[in-house]
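agent: user wants the structure for F-box domain-containing protein from Favolaschia claudopus. delegating to structure tool.
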Amino acid sequence: MPALTNHFSVPVLRLEELEIENRLDSSTLAYPVLTLPNEITVEIFLRFLPSYPYAPSMFGLLSPILLTKICRQWREVALTTPMLWRAISLPQGWVVDADRIEAAASAVSLWLSRSGNFPLSLHAFDHDDFLPIIFALTPHLHRAEHLSFRDANVGHLSAIDIPMSMLRSLCLHIEQGVSGSSPLKLTFRTGPLLRSVELDDDGVPSVILPWSQLTSLTLKNLYVDVTVSLLRDTPRLVDCTLCFWNRSDHQNDFTPLTLPHLKTLIFDRRCDANLAFLYTLATPALVSLELPERLLVSPYSDPIPSLEAFLTNSGCRLQQLRIFYPRFSLAAYRTAFPSIASIEW
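agent: tool returned. relaying tokens verbatim.
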């Protein structure tokens, strides 16, 4: 008996073959990563960018804009994921053509509009034609959680007149020559969450801050007497980094200063030697200390007894010590301070 044949078998097989070929040609099989659920793709994207509040640049390999240029599917995912756009860094010299500043401002506005209602981390270098950028930032500043302006012009920043109730950290470096001698003042007293501040010598007289609520403070390039004055206004400090200079016409005769909650104290490598300042401080909760050895030296003292006097006066249990530019050996410090778990250069 002849075998039964199906007159439709060959066309059916051909259709199946074509379907398989189409599937093999599809991007989802050619690139299996595109078959991942959007939730997983979003997690991958978030790990591709710097961890918040660190901000990616608007351009380059670590910018979320790069993710919009890979394929249509990734573009759709990136543009509809607000967390990818909640931090932005505008690098120094990123707009070199004043004629293009309006286009740049529009790009900033578009970027931030994609961030939805998320808190923001904003980092920018000021420049001569920065006002359009300020105006692009302003509608979103009520969401600013971390704010950094470097080479800032007080006149430009004074255009910001909006409460920033979500602000947690502020970094403000005023452009040299555009200093706090200006009558303009930037007010951040309405920031109930503000805890961390970094200022330079021109930034200090240019701002009004809720000093008493700060827990982290970095002061750069201030005179030592100004530094002491500010520290008296910040009794809640937990972390502090200082870089100060001595006044040639100023007598360093300070009344005692106690910072009861301070755990980490860092003196910048460039700090002027000033043993009187160190003896002014009492830091009973101090755990970590970094300082140049010259800060421990006067014409009549060696560094190790000076450090012993400071620690005894503070009554702290120091666990970490780092000395910059030492003359004495590491072994000498370890012998003198056996209770300090970590001592290094």
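agent: one observation worth passing along. Residues 52-60+86-203 form one domain.
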